Amino acid sequence: MPYEYLDHQADLGIRGIGATPQEALSQGAQAMLAAMANIETISCSIQLAQRCTAPDIAALFVEWLNELLYQREIHDLLLTYARVKSLQKHGQEWELEGIACGEPLDPSRHEIYTEVKAATYAGLDYRKENEQYIVQCVVDL
To answer: pTM for this one?
Structure first.
């Protein structure tokens, strides 16, 4: 047989929970950042703004996480936090404006856990349960 399948744990589900959709999205982003590195050791010397659009809030979560990963990669940063500043619906599209903060990667000071390659639509869910908003997806490690 020219190929075979191997069992491995390559993915991580993340979930954000909050009193508002913005808080749930922010907490979901924090879950991803905390899975990547010890965020307690990362200072906030560089701030980055994000703007994303998608047809619904669930898809917007994936778009935003991937934008954070893109900015982290091109600037060679570790991010300590990400927050949603604005969440609005414009016609058929939702728009998110966010802010993230971090510093250049320093392997001698930073404790790296894993690399997140991308946020995916696998396991994607957005809902209100009781008085809490919940957003979740699977990230590819």
So the answer is: 0.92
